[in-house]
Amino acid sequence: MEHENGTGVTEFVLLGLSQTREIQLFLFVLFLIFYSVILPANILIILTIQGDPHLGSPMYFFLANLAFLDICYCSVTPPKMLADFFSRHKTISYGGCMAQIFFIHFLGAAEVFLLMGMAFDRYVAICHPLRYASMMSREVCCALVGAAWAGGFMHSILQVVLIIRLPFCGPNELDNFFCDITQVIKLACTDVYVLEFLMFFSSGFSTVMCFLILLISYAVLLVRLRAGDPSKGTSKVASTCVTHVIIVFIMFSPAIYIYCHPFHTFFLDKVVSVFHTVVFPLMNPIIYTLRNKEIISAMKRLPGRHRLCRGK
């Protein structure tokens, strides 16, 4: 059956991470353990922040949303990847492939915009501490989160609209474990030079620009903190900024690698893709939590509050 855009391809074959059965089983066990431990940890972070009144500041509101976005992001490709380890013929339908592309870019871009919202929160906290409560009200925080989701949606729709019009009439093998524009666009039965340039600008160049803006912003804030009066509060804010910088690095580095080099296969592509779609997103909130004593203390109080609620 042909689609309306003239493509004769109804499904794509995913070559996966390895063709060796033993390696596939090892990777299945490894990723299943990681997914089973880190995913509940992110859920615990959200429940802790939502249930503890001491964590009601905008910073923790953004962190809970970041954890939720990461959970959603890691629910797009890993479940099928785990199932495909036991499948001899790894395929994904044309519609499923387009859906993966949409949600990967939707949630990924929403995270980028959310990180920029978190950077704005730190700017207000450092540069306008007396006006922080009014400038970062609950309404403003919800508006920033809503804008992040809306920005991610607009970015993703652009990617899908550009790629769904392409005709696919020949090879349908993707040398990866999921669908993404860098792989799918190479299978089109037409000249995609202009489209590659548009994709590079919308995904690669924009990612680099956001990365540089965030790094420069945090560098300026850290310089300003260092020039101010040293105190326990200042040290805490600086530690938070450093944590944000770490998250920015681990999130943007693989994205820049994937979308900023030419749309050709390189030997590190699959490795970077695994870290980009499975490992790093779930690790972001964990890294933040390990560097934040308030969240750790709140987690320790969580069982007590649960027993108290049951007692009532």
From TrEMBL:
InterPro entries: GPCR_Rhodpsn (IPR000276), GPCR_Rhodpsn_7TM (IPR017452), Olfact_rcpt (IPR000725), Olfactory_Receptors (IPR050427)
GO cellular component, one term: plasma membrane
Bilayer topology annotation: Multi-pass membrane protein
Main location: membrane
Keywords of this entry: Cell membrane, Disulfide bond, G-protein coupled receptor, Membrane, Olfaction, Receptor, Sensory transduction, Transducer, Transmembrane, Transmembrane helix
Residue ranges annotated for the G-protein coupled receptors family 1 profile domain, each copy included: 41-288
Protein's recorded name: Olfactory receptor
Gene that encodes the chain: LOC112122084
